[in-house]
Protein 1
Amino acid sequence: MREPAGKNVSNRSCDPLTATPEASSRPEPSDLHALLKEQAVLMAELDRRRRTNILAGYRPYARQREFHAAGATFRERLFMAGNQLGKTLAGAAEAAMHLTGRYPNWWVGRRFDKPIVMLAGSESYELTRDGVQRLLVGPPLNEEDWGTGFIPKAAIQATTRRSGASGALDSVTVRHVTGSTSTLLFKAYEQGRGKWQANTVDYVWFDEEPPEDVYFEGITRTNATRGSVAVTFTPLKGLSSVVARYLMESRRIARSSP
């Protein structure tokens, strides 16, 4: 027996709480706004941590890895390559590891188990500032972004400025994993050999080819500590005495083991 058409209509529920259950689970606009805001804050914090600790994300390619590994055997190393091939970046990453004592699991190069004193420089203070300092510390003219280079922001304890070159630093005090501090001193070849005659140091990084007298002074500074010398540059001066030291001598890369 067919039921009256009206009865079917009257049996359908019109209660809004049961008619559209999907609608009841939708977040309120205010809740959605709060959720998006929280996600934005989290993303900003993740980006800040990444930008202020880029050393943790450093992954060398084959030639960079070979350069790093050679440090376990040789006191003197040269990474000579064309422009934009990562030689200075590799030099900066390794310098930051030695200064902080933060070595990645894949590291097979030389390790310093204590805080160090390091000299690092290029042809002029402007070039040192725009190359070595920028990669290690961050944009020279924007102090708010210091700590976005390979030395993590949390590891930069103090800096001293150099007069005569806007944004240039004279030194950086770096927190080491042992709890003590390393010292980074910025230099320039244009100062001449005499200005590289600092106290005994553990590590010297020349970015761009140094004059022969400056190069040998760097080696002298590391003799007492059996320290290391790293050179990164694009060959623009032909077969100079520094290049010949690596390419033509029988022992090529190094004079002795650490």
Protein 2
Amino acid sequence: MKSRYFFGAMVILIGVIMLLQNLGFMDTGTLWHYIIPLFMVGMGLSNIIVKKRVSALDGFLVVVGELFLCKYAGFLGDFDPWKILVPGTIILIGARFIFKRKTGYRDMSVADNKIEANAFFSGSELVCSSNNFEYGDLNVAFGGIKVDLRNADTNLSVCHMDVNAVFGGIEIIVPEDWGVLARVTPVFGGCENRTVSPQNPRTVLTIAGSTLCGGIEIYNKPRSI
């Protein structure tokens, strides 16, 4: 299951609801109250399925999202989920500072041939050191992802990366001997390809996807030693 399907489905759902409301075919009323909680639950479950493990953030998103859904459905009476959301968020932020690995700006080193990263109300920084990079899948909502491919190599003439940014940003660093072909559709956002293509690129990285009120930046640097 690729997380971009979830992001795409959520964006389409929000667009359809707005369209039906603006055309007068549907009185959404309190329906908007359910969109963000559903997004939280869906994002948490999507991350759990992709990563095949439950992180504190993903579990927090699922539990709080379900509490808000139950609240709006009238199952929780006078209980206010905000009493959990605000202090819980503060606790997660504090825990991130305490348990974050002391590896400079690198949050995680990836040696796999495929990269899958999701950031929802959070940030992620990845350094790829694969000797045969093939594919990447990056999805952001209200957060940011930075991927450093300078230590990566590949046996392919063309490798691919899917990117989706919703109210967030994605930053991609590629080696100087790689070419980049960006095919990103921006909606109230942008994609800036600042790479300088070599005459004879070792490989070409094709980057495809979309941005909704977000941004994607691609540039190259010399390989790190």
Protein 3
Amino acid sequence: MPEHVVTPLAVDAERGWSLLPDGGPLFRHVLDAGGAGPDSWAEALGQYARMQRALTPYTDRMAGLGVPDGRTGRLPEVFDGLVEGNTTLAPDTRRALREQRPKLLDWCAELDAHGIPDSLDHCDLHDAQLLAPAAGRFTFFDWGDANVAHPFSSLLVPAQAVRERHGPEHVHRLREAYLEPWTDLGPSSRSCAGPRCSPPGSPRWAGRSRGSASSPARRPPGARRPAPTG
């Protein structure tokens, strides 16, 4: 996926270091300067979705390389491990989470029934995680919180960013641009992101979008919190 990411000049896998070239201006700075707007966000999300589609055959390989595995079929297992293994949970909190497990199973089964394949989820795709080296061209970086998961999870953070900067009337356009590369999978691609699944801009999202666009509003359980990004 070299056209979608910054290709390292050198990598030290043992120490987890990489040397990156200049990838162009930060998308946030372009937005601040008035050189981009909601339509640019839609272009970026369409490109991102096409990248995710291309990566769907490689989920096993990515998980095998150590990318955290939050695929739909594994979420109950992840949930159980965190609920039972988290020693910081108060007894009442642990009990309440256990009581919610049947609901989680139902949600996972419903999500899986739509047939949308898992892919790579950036998990924190706000405007300071994109570079804009040229008009209509974007690269995505800072993948430190990424996991293998249902791809539509990626919509939450960009939707919050667009809602806060440009207004809720632009969120539908963002959603449509993101979903377009998945439409060959049938109507389920849109119904999966419909009201039942709380799409960007829905009332359930509205209450969650009051925080910072760079906050980990939709982060897989156990994932680390990112450092501030400008």
Protein 4
Amino acid sequence: MKKVLIALAALALCSAAIASSGPLLTNAWATGLRFVSSQKGQGHGPTSSTTGFTSATTGINSSGWLYVTFKDNVGSAYAGETYQYAFTSAGAATWVCEVGGHGKGKNQDSAQQTTYFPNGSYTSGATGTASKRGVISGSAVIAPPDPPASTLCSGTWELGAVSYKLPSSSLVNTSLLYNADKVMTGTCTIGTACSDTFIGGVTAPTVQ
């Protein structure tokens, strides 16, 4: 009889211990889930076909800068989180030496030189915060390659023409590691060159 009573007492103690540890185990599991879901840059993020870049349009503004405007859907679960983007392009600029003022090639010196980005391309960064619906609207710009040294022109170097060429991964969400190569549209599309002329008679340079 004593053995039975001891066994029942032990069982009661074991049940009480399990009951008291239950909430602790549940809280630890829930905390783990919250921690995992808030990680960025570790493969967590858009998983359905409706997430990712939904639009990305490029063009050249009146100053010869290449720009991109985009929308990225990371999902409502990531509302309020901040993401980093990288916009990359190769570029070539023709610079014209102007002496005695500006204006459609007037008083141009004979000097013209083409410059390129160091290392073949340039990357511009952008940051965006997800809305309540998990959508990020952002933009980034890339300025033309720098002009030649001022000592090579007796006047002022003016931008004559510029061309850009986007590589296949020109716009990347660097926090979640995916790119917009399938949705880029507009003046400069993925894998093709785009150019604009700012001074008459100057041929847009070829991008290396």
